[in-house]
Amino acid sequence: MKSMFKLSALFVAMGITALGVAPVAQAATAPAEKATAVLVHGAFADGSSWDEIIPSLHAHDLKVVSVQNPLSSLADDVAATRRALDAQTGPVVLVGHSWGGMVITEVGNHSRVQSLVYVASFAPSVGQSINDLAKDYAKPSGLDHVVVDKEGFVTMSFEGISQHFAQDLPVAKHRLMTATQGAIRGAAFDEKVSVAAWATKPSWFIVSDQDRMIQPALQLDNAKKISATTIRVRAGHVPQLSTPKEVIKAILDAAKLNNE
To answer: Residue 227 falls within a domain, yes or no?
Structure first.
């Protein structure tokens, strides 16, 4: 009996030891979660404006969310983007095109956001609106081709889309973009940001040298102000469609920062 008791005690001891080891194995560090690219479109557009780059981002094992902004106010677009950020579980590269730069500047202090990518965009300081940013630069030619409805919402004519917004894309794309564009409330261009997320988050900036909607000089000055990694492209206002490789690379570079 004593031998059996000793053997049982040995087995119990071994069991206790095994139980002690198991939690250590389970506590092994899990692989870092891949970043999600949250894409924020601009005025006169919708979430499909990112269609050219989304498959490549997926191919590089990034998750992607393309926000559908209501374009009814800065606050409404920030709320839509914040909901998308709240739904993520890992680090986020927050990307904004054109007016979307206002949105990511305001909401980019979200805890999930690790880096910002501005694409032919605005990067305001606290207390600045788009009209504040643009007042010291020549009026872009594209702004002569906007249509304002009786409720103050603004769209672009086909001529504006084809000759000034996306002059470096084929005519079939012009027709599609004109048909699917989002109308933005004109008063939004006077709305000011209360946060400048770029002050605390690493930033990238795609500057479009042939932009006819936002002066390239304004883009360059904004990129310099925020100390962004700056990439210049020979493109119109939608480089994510006309020169997608450069935009994809900037997003991937920002994502690598998250996964180091």
So the answer is: yes
